[in-house]
Design brief:
Elements (H helix, E strand, L loop, with lengths): L4 E8 L4 E2 L2 E2 L2 E10 L2 E8 L14 E8 L8 E8 L18 H6 L4 E3 L3 E4 L2 E4 L10 H5 L2 E9 L2 E2 L2 H15 L7 H14 L5 E8 L16 E8 L9 E7 L14 H12 L4 E6 L2 E5 L3 E6 L2 E4 L10 H12 L4 E3 L4 H5 L3 E6 L3 E8 L2 E2 L7 H17 L1
Parallel strand pairs: 15-16, 15-22, 19-20
Antiparallel strand pairs: 1-6, 2-3, 4-5, 4-7, 5-8, 9-10, 9-14, 11-12, 11-13, 13-14, 16-17, 18-19, 18-21, 21-22, 22-23
The chain binds pyridoxal-5'-phosphate.
Pyridoxal-5'-phosphate binds next to helix 6 and strand 21.
């Protein structure tokens, strides 16, 4: 087992003021690792009930990380002080001297925030310290595959399906699968635990590995494996989305979850530039999917989604929603959807592992159906929430 000793000091000082009332505040962050779990204990000695104060002034930051033997132990300490003129600055951390961290957490004084710990080729490390070679074929060619897995209540949601798709993507790209199913599960669980459980988005990437740059597969190469985590702020978000449509400029194997995503990136940026959430892609007059989502429509009392062909990614959420429709007795067709039909739909939904199932209320500036989430989606949400509650 490899481990790290980490030490960081962050000092910033300046003036904090809200209106006429000066605020005394002192914040500290203490990071520790025990049992392989990294935690950040974040405290604030400022007066309780105050909104967060603004810190103006000079910031000083020092951070470093040091590997020591094989003991799983790391400590980091950081201090941030802010003050208003004319007030006495309290001693750093004085409020906590006689309190243990659990009590502070219960009282709401102390927030426990997990750090972002990633797994890279056998080592757990803070994400910002994770490095791969510039000769990695993921970097040079986008020669890799990936998965994004939602985690609810500390458990990977529909994990089996994500791992099946990962295995399929690796086989399709002829990248050696470095792990058994059980090993993948253990590695993912390790990252989930080190990031504090709860709700997260796991990002898992496997590239062909590092070698001198030649297009053909190098011999004797071992895959690069990265597993990282991001917080999942709003699980089961239902915020309505506005989208645009664009011609699908991608390759013909969109069923492979490849890291070569420049087409998707350019297409998604167009919706971002237009102030919209997603770009729906149309090829030969037929709707295929979103830049990073699948598409469903409701029309004439039937749910429809384009069939899973190489022209689109067979989304895990897409399949799950198809099953929810069956449970809800909603008739569903996996069928071609001409662009006109999309614009004329009663409801449009987009689905993805981290976005969940979102109602689309506007396409290219025109409202969809009644301009708000429709009754079919409400039924799906009811089932989804029930499933989610049972799962967590
Ligand atoms: C192109 C594309 N289609 C569909 C999806 C939805 O797939 P899933 O539900 O498995 O997240 C994604 C997710 O990232 C995607 O990138």
């Amino acid at each position: 087992m490899s481990s790290v000793f980490g030490f960081a000091i962050i000092l910033s000082s300046g003036i904090a003021a809200r209106g006429n009332a000066g605020i005394l505040a002192c914040e500290f962050t203490f990071t520790s690792v025990s049992d392989g779990l990294f935690y950040v204990f974040n405290g604030n000695t400022g007066r309780q009930g105050r909104p967060p104060h603004q810190v103006l002034g000079i910031h000083f930051r020092f951070s470093g990380i040091l590997a020591i033997d094989d003991r799983d132990f790391a400590v980091a300490f950081s201090v941030r002080i802010s003050m208003a003129p004319g007030r006495v600055v309290p001693k750093i951390g004085s409020q906590y001297r006689n309190k243990n961290t659990r009590e502070c957490a219960r009282n709401g004084i102390l927030r426990i925030i997990p750090m972002n710990i990633a797994y890279l080729n056998g080592v757990h490390t803070p994400l910002e310290k994770a490095c791969v070679s510039v000769l990695d074929r993921g970097f040079l060619f986008g020669d890799g595959v990936y998965e994004v897995i939602p985690v609810y209540g500390g458990k990977g949601f529909l994990l089996d399906r994500h791992l099946t798709r990962l295995e399929n993507s690796l086989a399709a790209t002829r990248i050696e699968n470095p792990h058994t199913r059980a090993q993948w599960e253990a590695l993912i669980d390790g990252v989930i635990r080190r990031n504090g459980g709860g709700n997260q988005g796991i990002y898992l990437q496997v590239t062909r590995g590092s070698a001198p740059r030649l297009h053909a597969f190098p011999k004797d190469i071992s895959p690069t494996v990265l597993i990282s985590s991001q917080p999942l702020a709003i699980p089961l978000d239902t915020t309505p989305a506005k989208v645009i449509t664009r011609s699908d400029i991608r390759w013909e194997r969109c069923d492979i979850k490849s890291t070569s995503l420049i087409g998707n990136v350019l297409l998604r940026q167009e919706s971002t530039d237009a102030g919209c959430l997603e770009t729906i892609l149309v090829r030969d007059g037929q709707v295929k999917e979103g830049a990073a989502s699948n598409v469903f429509i409701v029309r004439g009392g039937r749910v429809m989604t384009p069939p899973a062909t190489p022209a689109l990614l067979g989304g895990v959420t897409r399949k799950f929603v198809i099953e929810l429709c069956a449970t809800a007795n909603l008739p569903l067709d996996e069928t071609d959807i001409p662009e006109d039909m999309l614009r004329d739909a009663d409801e449009v939904w987009i689905t993805g592992s981290l976005m969940g199932i979102l109602p689309v209320i506007e396409i290219d500036g025109s409202p969809v159906g009644i301009g708000r989430p429709g009754p079919f989606l409400e039924r799906i949400y009811t089932l989804f929430r029930r499933y989610w509650q049972d799962f967590t």
